[in-house]
Design brief:
Rossmann fold; three-stranded antiparallel sheet; 3 domains; 15 helices; five-stranded parallel sheet; alpha/beta; Molybdopterin biosynthesis moea protein, domain 2
């Protein structure tokens, strides 16, 4: 658990005393006013607990907490002041949603107890949120795996688009926002409800990332309506619905609102979809970036550079033949898999998950489970199979 604690007070002597008394107990940072504290928050990872004085010049404690909470809504805030007025305490609690209210002078033991309680509260809040995010992401992964079995033409692309989104996030230093990950997984959901003749384009990749594509606009709107019905996924829904209209210019490293997060997520999804189409057409490097810029003339320089930095291929994978019974998660199919009646089960290019492997395994008669199939796998996986 993070023990990062920020103390904010305009009295430097008090901050010096805090550092002497508490620096050994917590990862302690101090700031001599609201503006400096906000700058610290922008430059560093989130603080678990922030302890702030109420009476400060230019920006008082309540004003500071309101601004700080827009940056770090999960942080636990404690108010420390020499003002004994009950109205001040009520204002701090109601307007700033303060966790604890302490009065000066405050004994070290009392202060430590309050900060430790704040740390436990922060752990509780973030643990619940992490569990919720993992639950959502896990459920969506299962959903997209099942959809990939029934709509392989569409959902073969979803995994690649998700990988491009993650890679772009890393290159742009955007942080790990779970909404982006879910939007990438569900970004093609609306295509599954298009007329069957239009669904073919989802696999071919004909202008799906361009603003002139009516299929893209219709599918995005449908996907947004579907996802909006799921509690707490409104931002994900907006990302999916908005991505036909973004221009590629947004690079928001620390989105402070859901609106900003939706704009950044929609930009990632739009660019990743375009990049997938262009890569499948065989374009690479600067030629591929120039093609993206034709569709998105306002594409930011940062995004263009991030695209150029994306790996073209995974050099740590090699093509190998394995038996059906030796298929592993992470392998990529090098050939289509069809059923005995000729219907498509999984198209080549799909990276295997546990759900897909289970489906393939159950669809084979016992004798076929020893049949070989060509896949791409990491060299470490190949070595394990060879020495098994």
């Amino acid at each position: 658990m993070s023990k990062r604690v920020l103390f904010v007070d305009d009295e430097q002597s008090l901050l010096n005393g805090i550092e002497r008394r508490l620096a050994g107990s917590f990862d302690l940072v101090t700031a001599s006013g609201g503006a400096e504290a906000l700058a610290q928050m922008d430059d560093r990872n989130p603080f678990a607990v922030i302890v702030t004085d109420m009476r400060m010049p230019k920006m008082d404690g309540v004003q500071f907490i309101k601004e700080a909470r827009s940056r770090a809504p999960d942080t636990v805030y404690i108010m420390l002041t020499g003002n004994q007025d009950q109205a001040t305490a009520i204002q701090a609690l109601n307007e700033g949603h303060v966790f604890r209210f302490l009065t000066k002078p405050c004994q070290s033991a009392e202060l430590v107890t309050a900060v430790e309680a704040g740390l436990r509260q922060y752990e509780l809040v973030t643990s619940e949120k992490e569990l919720l995010q993992k639950t959502f992401c896990g459920a969506v992964s299962v959903l997209t795996d099942v959809l990939a079995l029934s709509h392989p033409n569409i959902f073969n692309r979803a995994e690649r688009i998700g990988q491009y989104c993650l890679a772009l996030q890393a290159e742009l230093g955007l942080g790990d926002h779970w909404e982006y990950k879910l939007a990438a997984k569900l970004g093609l959901l609306g295509f599954a409800l298009l007329p069957e003749s239009d669904q073919v384009n989802a696999d071919v990749g004909t202008q799906l990332g361009t603003s002139s594509s009516e299929q893209l606009r219709q599918a995005a709107a449908t996907g947004q309506r579907l996802i909006e019905r799921i509690p707490r996924l409104s931002t994900v829904a907006r990302i999916i619905g908005r991505q036909p209209d973004v221009d590629g210019s947004a690079v928001i490293q620390n989105p402070r609102t859901d609106e900003a997060k939706a704009n950044m997520g929609a930009t990632l999804l739009r660019v990743a979809m375009l990049w997938d189409e262009i890569s499948r057409q065989g374009l690479r490097g600067t030629e591929a970036v120039e093609e993206v810029q034709r569709s998105l003339p306002r594409l930011s320089l940062e995004m263009a550079q991030a695209l150029l930095a994306l790996p073209v291929d995974d050099s740590n994978e090699e093509s190998v033949e394995v038996r059906f019974c030796d298929l592993r998660e992470g392998m990529v199919l090098c050939e289509d898999i069809v059923s005995d009646n000729g219907s498509m089960l999984i198209r080549k290019g799909r990276r295997l998950t546990w759900t897909i492997i289970e489906r393939l395994y159950n669809s084979q008669v016992p004798g076929d489970r020893l049949r070989s199939i060509r896949v791409r796998a990491s060299t470490s996986t190949v070595d394990q199979l060879v020495h098994a």
